[in-house]
């Protein structure tokens, strides 16, 4: 069983995964030591062709809390046999010989992780492949909404920030289209609007959406505001994000009390730190959910292997 | 409980810490396996914004010998979200979500570790922040003296090498000023003499000191000779350290039999290898003490967490 | 006990090591969890002065499967105290203080690992020192032959690829000379032929060999074809290896059914991927054997330490 794309999960599988994540999260709060026995001595290799400290540490923590050993390389692109011209298929076939229970791969090129997975029986988890997929990010985003609302249907989700380049907003829109009754509001400047391929995807699945550049109007009846990082170098000349699409206390006032504010992190100026203590701000919880989703995925994979 | 500065410890706390360190050291020599049960499965993250292999491996070994899992990043400055503009407060708030039991941080800028600590409830240990603090180094230096003499009072300590730039000699002088009756001799060339802020600090606390450029005179009644690394590029033109302030067998002859020679390592030419077998040479023991002091600190932190 | 060179083993010791490796391999296939108890909590440091991801991950996996903790540095040359001028003797003396059970060292300069070993009582394993030795590679190559044929005598071994620069082919030739009745065929272009020092070594020990540039003739009665990587920049102008010394399905047809094809990996174009499914292709098995040989070496070292 490989984890290559969030698309690979059926609605039923997603719900099972989220229920497992939630039960792990509760058990962990009660008794870490029980979970520590689950996969004692099993081995996780994290093979990162480009650095992504946050994602790597999240996977490593997830594994360590379940008693696994973690063996990692931070920058395989520069260091490994890849530099000598080895294909990723050969690399994972060699790693397979070292008998790991799973291999987490981060790669700078789209499709490379899927190529690796096709070459081996060891479970491969995609931790991001270039502009391609980053399924555990999508899953932790969706889980955070599911955890809070107890459902993934009939929600009004505002997507903001850099919708054109941001992988996370694009993936979330696609995942939301699998569930009924959701409505998406794209809230950004025209230059960074969501691309047509995603709009087409939503159209095909009957999910409604609108573009609303005014933050106050967009936030008015939100269930979820999902904000993303804006890179200064991508803003049109003369546009200062902190004067327009930065969320501060005032902007929080536009949101209902029942809404939640999410962000894949790292954030820079697009969410002011004064917002952090607002109970609706869920971005750190969201990051923590990432570790628990990864624990649930590893547990699913390793439990299957045992059977 | 964060470990940010050696100054944070009272005399009583220092003595308790050293007694614990000493008892761990003895227990470890007798039965490693008992200590291995102490913090089984607990997770330590080492977050290094600049490389310091020696310090990182010392912390990691300390944790591993107590059964902890260690998750680390060697060069967070270049690799992590920091490169995308994330603050260290956000970084540790994310790491906190991964449920580590402690986080060791090394940073290239003074004050950053304290900022991190202020933002989180996870115990933070400062493993050096620029020109700021490096409390575990100060503690291992002091512990080494305490271990050998059974006290930290009424000692004659010679500080040599680069007293102007060296963080370790400055910190040691400050810690010695907390105890009664010590006398410090600054033994170096005028260009690398101890700075006035430290002299003022000693004056304020009534600790006596002198400058003595002659090695033979300085060493005559020493209890401790604490030597530090001299970087060639900081020496005035025409000064060759090996002809003046390098310690060789001859220089050892100036010291009493009861004295000990310390050095924070790495050493280059300022202590000749012929000195290594002299029983008074304690620099490798001192490095080993560093691991045991770190075990004691981690044990103190984790035992508190349990309570 | 240090592992510095394949030469250090007597024939009897090699056979004992291989028997142990084989028994570990079988036990691992039956019950990983038993092996996990063997060296629980013991600590391995991998100190790599230059990156070699494959070798490092192989050692780390070997250790993890036996319950050891692994503490590692990927690029000590750039990061560690070495950059400040510390000798490798001092470095290992400091590491010794951290009480590891073994230290694996990879170094870019010949002889440095042996210097480290001479300075410490902690078992040092050479994971490659420049153009010098890489004993675990030699041992896994030899083990693979022993495992398949049940012997290391009276075999016809074809060595191909870059025999002039390749460390592995040179080492294998030397090891084969310790056993009776082997015959080596050097199958490459004149510009990359085996150097005279190895030929002299074989002459001195009475091992027969020949040069045969024709692949079909060379492979005709082979027991082992040991192929090595060809670096394009070392080929004479106008020579395209894929037209001459690349092994494809056709070339496999020149080999007896009972022969095996080995390669130290990574491979680039010198073995076509279409060959991978041929049962005679043993290069991935060979890489896996590397982990088991390393487990056997670590087990030998740690069992001795216990006694």
Descriptive report:
The structure is a homotrimer of 307-residue chains. Chain A is of the alpha/beta class and 307 residues long. Chain A has two domains: 6-134 and 290-306, 3-Layer(aba) Sandwich (Rossmann fold), CATH 3.40.50.1370; 135-286, Rossmann fold (3-Layer(aba) Sandwich). Chain A contains twelve helices and nine strands. Chain A has helices at 11-30, 32-36, 53-65, 76-79, 88-97, 112-118, 135-149, 167-176, 196-204, 215-219, 249-252, 283-306, and strands spanning 43-48, 69-73, 102-107, 124-129, 156-160, 183-187, 208-211, 224-227, 260-262. In chain A, strands 7-6-5-8-9 form a five-stranded parallel β-sheet. A four-stranded parallel β-sheet of chain A has the order 2-1-3-4, sandwiched between helices. In chain A, strand 8, helix 11 and strand 9 form a beta-alpha-beta unit. In chain A, helix 5 (88-97) crosses helix 6, helix 7 (135-149) packs across helix 8 and helix 7 crosses helix 12 (283-306). The interface between A and B is medium-sized, with 32 and 29 residues.
Labels describing this entry:
307 residues, alpha/beta, 41% helix, globular, homotrimer, 14% strand, Rossmann fold, five-stranded parallel β-sheet
């Amino acid at each position: 069983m490989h984890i290559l794309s969030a698309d690979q999960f059926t609605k039923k599988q997603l719900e099972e995964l989220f229920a497992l994540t939630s039960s792990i999260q509760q058990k962990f709060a009660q008794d870490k030591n029980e979970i520590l026995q689950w996969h004692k001595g099993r081995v996780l290799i994290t093979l990162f062709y480009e650095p992504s400290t946050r994602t790597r540490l999240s996977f490593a923590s997830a594994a360590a809390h379940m008693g696994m050993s973690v063996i990692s390389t931070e920058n395989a692109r520069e260091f490994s046999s890849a530099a000598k011209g080895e294909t990723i298929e050969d690399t994972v076939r060699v790693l397979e010989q070292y008998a790991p229970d799973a291999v987490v791969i981060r790669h700078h090129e789209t499709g490379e992780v899927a190529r690796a997975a096709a070459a081996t029986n060891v479970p491969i988890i995609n931790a991001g492949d270039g502009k391609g997929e980053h399924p555990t990010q999508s899953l932790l985003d969706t889980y955070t909404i599911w955890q809070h609302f107890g459902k993934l249907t009939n929600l009004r989700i505002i997507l903001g920030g850099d919708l054109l380049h941001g992988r996370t907003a694009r993936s979330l829109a696609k995942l939301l289209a699998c569930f009924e009754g959701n409505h998406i509001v794209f809230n950004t400047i025209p230059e960074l609007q969501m691309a047509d391929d995603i709009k087409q995807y939503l159209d095909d699945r009957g999910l409604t959406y609108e573009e609303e550049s005014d933050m106050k109007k967009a936030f008015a009846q939100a269930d979820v505001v999902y904000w993303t990082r804006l890179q200064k170098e991508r803003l049109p000349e003369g546009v200062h994000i902190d004067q327009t699409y930065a969320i501060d206390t005032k902007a929080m006032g536009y949101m209902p009390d029942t809404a939640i504010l999410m962000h894949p992190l790292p954030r820079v100026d697009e969410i002011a730190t004064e917002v952090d203590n607002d109970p609706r701000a869920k971005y750190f919880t969201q990051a923590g959910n990432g570790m628990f989703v990864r624990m649930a995925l590893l547990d699913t994979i390793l439990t299957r292997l045992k059977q």
